[in-house]
Design a protein that fits this description.
mainly alpha, 2 domains
Length: 83
């Protein structure tokens, strides 16, 4: 269990560093990309593909959260039984 916690903490640190780097780059956004339009043009097909992708991501997140909750409850139960 501690290995998983350590890996999650490490991953969280990586995400925080990436966000910090992006925020620093945001200050120079207009100098870096002056020719980009402010509107993203996407087709109807792309919208549908994104919606399908979001559906599967939500389903995957739900399954992972169920598994994590089950693991958390199992570890809590084993700690209570051991004390």
């Amino acid at each position: 269990m501690t290995t998983t916690v350590n890996q999650l903490a490490r991953a969280f640190g990586v995400v925080v560093r990436q966000i910090a780097d992006l925020l620093m780059m945001l200050q120079d956004y207009h100098a870096l990309v002056p020719n980009l339009s402010k509107v993203l043009d996407i087709s109807t097909t792309e919208v549908l593909e994104l919606q399908v992708s979001e559906f599967w991501q939500n389903a995957t997140y739900f399954v992972v959260s169920l598994a994590m909750n089950a693991l958390l409850q199992a570890s809590s139960g084993s700690e209570m039984a051991g004390s």
